Amino acid sequence: MMAATKRVTFGVTAAVMSLAFLAGCAGSADRGADVGRSGAHGAKENGPAAAPKSPVRLIGDGSTAYTGPQPFQPVPRKLTPGEKPPQFVVFSWDGAGEDSQRLFSHFRKVGQKYGAKMTYFLSGVYLLPEDKKTLYNPPRHSVGRSDIGFNDARGIKDTVEQIRGAWFEGNEIGTHFNGHFCGKDGGVGTWSKEEWKSEILQAKAFVKNWKSNAALKSVKPLPFDYETELIGARTPCLEGRKNFMRAASEMGFRYDTSGVNDQIWPQKQGKLWDLSMQLVPIPGRAFQTLSMDYNFYMNQSGAARGDESKHEYWGNQMRDGLVQAFERSYRGNRAPLIIGNHFESWNGGTYMRAIEDTIKTVCTQQEVRCVSFRQLADWLDAQDPQVLAKLRTLKVGQAPKTDWGTFLAQPPAAVAPAKHAERH
Fold first, then answer.
1. What strands lie across the sheet with 260-261, from one edge to the other?
2. Element (H, E) at 87
3. Where is the secretion signal located (predicted)?
4. Nearest 10 degrees: CA dihedral of 154, 2, 197, 224?
């Protein structure tokens, strides 16, 4: 088993009653047995991973390379006056890497099948071999320390293969940083802006130098310049966001997805789009939880392997909660739905099944675009700010009282601003 499978589960409580949302992190505590205009990105746009059509220009030691513009990227288009906005859905993966479960490669196929582009947040230490761990100097921790371990040559090679294929298929490669430190004892929530900058630079360095570090000179390079590819992130356990955003704003990032919000239209915080995680229903429960597999896992079995007879029910509950969240946006305010996941087999893999079922259900519907965070940010940047301001006046699940054309023709000041949904 590759070293990257030796992960530890972490969570952080956010003040929503009865463990309503916990920021989940990759772990191994419970492994089971082994955009078009009028619809989702379809099969024609999602063929096999494309080969670069322009000459490859190696960067640095050849770990990365410029291969030309990324394939399968929709051209962002401003809404025409009164046009109903599309329904965006973003599926994303924290600490993306290919281990013995082969979930990275599996969900690439799922994305191809159902026309879904996704964002993969790569942990830099998954491209750093165990015998080179002293190259990592984490803030507020000893050199060579990582709470999710490191990798081995086979794991690095497998992960690079999946990242390469995912990028050629139109998906985004973000970062989940490196050592995944949570909590008060030196966790990312205690880091200064300068410490975040150090962590970001090291995460980039491990991606840009994996060939040398892992002695894998014959393996093909990653097909992008990580300096321009990397524009967004999700922090470990959703901690440390304030100082991370200060650092990211100075380092050319375009979005952050480490916050907690309702299903309303996003806005910028300073230079960054706030594409936060969202509160979604838990069918049969009186409160909402965060739109992430770990949070359903925590609420259902306390982040420990639960009764096997309940696994199917728990997966169905997560799927149905996400689909309900989708429906209230799709038929309401059309706010983008943000969903986060981990390549983990918690409770027998039931959450992976739930995510696959959700992708199959929502990404095939009309006027739906299952996109990466980069693609969503591109679309938001292309819109008239007054139109986005008007969309933000709609509450969770609230459709315009008039038709969309009449609603968007009115200035934003004509209605009261949206209120956050009640959090339980």
1. 260-261, 277-281, 288-290
2. strand 87-96
3. 1-28
4. 30
At 20, which CATH number? 3.20.20.370
- Give CA–CA dist 261/291, Å, rounded: 10
Q: Is residue 424 assigned to a domain?
A: no
The Cβ of residue 235 has, within 10 Å, a number of other Cβ atoms equal to 31
Query: What pLDDT does 116 receive?
Result: 98
- For the record, the structure tokens of 85 come out as 């906005």
Closest by CA position to 91, among listed 364, 390, 342: 342
Q: Is residue 153 part of a domain?
A: yes
Give yes or no for a contact between 305 and 55, defined as CB atoms under 8 angstroms apart: no
Residue 131 makes CB contacts below 8 A (sequence gap 6+) with none
Q: Is residue 75 assigned to a domain?
A: yes
What is the number of domains present in the chain? 1
Indicate whether 420 belongs to any domain.
Answer: no
With pLDDT > 90 as the criterion, what percentage of the chain qualifies?
83
* Token representation of residue 145: 């320390």
pLDDT digits (tens, 9 = 90+) for 189-198: 999 999 999 9
Q: Domain span at residue 151?
A: 3-414
- Per residue in 272-314, pLDDT (tens digit) is 999 999 999 999 999 999 999 999 999 999 999 999 999 999 9
